[in-house]
Amino acid sequence: MTLFVVLLLPLVTALGVWQLERGAQKRALEMQYLNQLTALPTRLHSAEAPAPFQRIKLEGRYGDQVFLVDNQIHRGRTGYWIVQVFDEVGGKRLLVNRGFVAGASQRSILPEVSHPAEQLRLVGTVWPYTGLIPVLDEDLWPTSWPKRVQRLDIRRMADLVGALPFEVRLEAGQPGVMQAAPFAAVLSDAKHLGYAATWFGLALALLVAYLLFGYRSSAPGADKAV
Fold first, then answer.
1. In angstroms, rounded to a whole number, what is the distance separating the alpha carbons of residues 101 and 117?
2. Predicted structure pTM score
3. Residue 126 phi/psi, 5° resolution?
């Protein structure tokens, strides 16, 4: 029992601390987002990643490479985020998140995604890297397009298509946008605080159970129990 507690108690405590740190990161990102909320969009003048939540203006055309990011939920429906290549007039290639599209009832049927063919002017927000959701198996990508992928792995996507390694989320009303991807809602720290409370609660329960076990074991007559 002692060995079990010694091994498990630091683990659940560390997980609780990690969730608190993740919550603090989300609060910091939320403050950055609020600070950029009223800023006017600007042109992207260099290949370096702009500041998180910077609003930028793009001019160019949608490319043919499309990623369908699986495991997304919007208003109770499951589906995909559409992340598509966008070729700027100046030669830069970016990854634009066009938003959510619902999936078919059969997993084998992928949604048909069209896009405007003409040259466009778009306004989007540079979205910061907030980590990847865990997957049980290796996320193997198909060789054909569009590619259904399990995670929004922008860096891997950028390496594959030769784009700049950051995500641009289209604002509602932009040409080619679907149901726009969420902004401030995903920056809340409430989920991480809830997870932290769960892990710390498990640590407390484990400690109390160990103390009770030790008390009963050391109580008079405990060694005579049948």
1. 19
2. 0.66
3. -70, 120
Residue whose C-alpha is closest to residue 127's, from 55, 178, 188, 176? 55
150-176 pLDDT, tens digit per residue, is 888 899 999 999 999 999 999 888 998
Show me where the domains of the chain are located: 2-20+190-224, 40-186
Q: Name residues whose C-beta falls within 8 Å of residue 40's C-beta, 6 or more positions apart in sequence.
A: 55
In DSSP notation, 83-114 reads: EEEEEETTS-EEEEEEEEEEPPSSTT-PPP--
Contact 152, 132 (CB under 8 A): yes
pLDDT of residue 82: 93
Tokens of residue 26, six digits:
């989300």
Token representation of residue 46: 């260099």
Token readout for 57 is 């203006």
